[in-house]
Design brief:
This protein has helices at residues 12-18, 29-36, 56-62, 74-83, 118-131, 163-172; strands at residues 44-48, 66-71, 88-91, 104-109, 132-140, 147-150, 157-160. It has 6 helices and 7 strands. The chain has a single domain (12-172), classed as 3-Layer(aba) Sandwich (Rossmann fold), CATH 3.40.50. The N and C termini lie far apart (39 Å). The longest helix has 14 residues, at 118-131.
Length: 177
């Protein structure tokens, strides 16, 4: 069976033991909480690459936001459902034709985009632009310089397109930075 999760299904047990639980380090939690706090109460947020939900989804939920989540690892999605039974989640790669049947006030892709190929990153950002309401907000993470490295958990290549290229892609999709 093909692993559509950029290697994360293959290391799901390791992920769950280290970073995918309430006792995880909380990487990004403070930044996501600050971003989420600037959204309107009850805003709808699409979270791409949600993993188990710890700690990022927890921050969104605690801010009173309506979260819709996507992750490609069946094991991580099962853990997500146990952790956040009231949050809608689908098991699909972010770059696939995930059926967004609505628009969102915000989209979050923490620690995901650079795991994808450059073409898939462009596809995801174009789809995000379509999924955002006018005046919607996007938060994603990637190194500011163009760089390639191996993901610390999967060992697979990761690639940042760099700040200038991300800005170009976002502008081409009709988003402002």
């Amino acid at each position: 069976m093909e692993d559509r999760s950029n290697g994360y299904e293959g290391i799901a047990a390791e992920f769950l033991a280290g970073r995918g639980s309430p006792r995880s380090s909380g990487i990004g939690a403070r930044d996501v909480r600050a971003w989420a706090g600037r959204l309107p109460p009850g805003a709808t947020v699409l979270e791409l690459g949600c993993g188990t939900g710890w700690p990022i989804t927890r921050e969104l939920v605690e801010e009173g936001l309506e979260v819709h989540a996507v992750d490609a690892s069946p094991t991580l999605v099962a853990a997500f459902k146990r952790n956040f039974p009231g949050v809608h989640v689908v098991c699909e790669p972010a770059e696939s034709d995930v059926p967004f049947d609505r628009q969102f006030d915000a989209v979050l892709a923490w620690g995901l985009l650079f795991l994808l190929s450059p073409d898939d990153q462009r596809t995801v950002l174009a789809r995000v632009a379509e999924a955002l309401r006018p005046e919607g907000r996007l938060l994603f993470t990637a190194p500011p310089e163009p760089i390639t490295w191996n993901d610390a958990m999967t060992g697979l290549p990761s690639q940042s397109l760099g700040r200038s290229e991300y800005i170009r892609i976002l502008h081409a999709a009709g988003l402002t930075v």
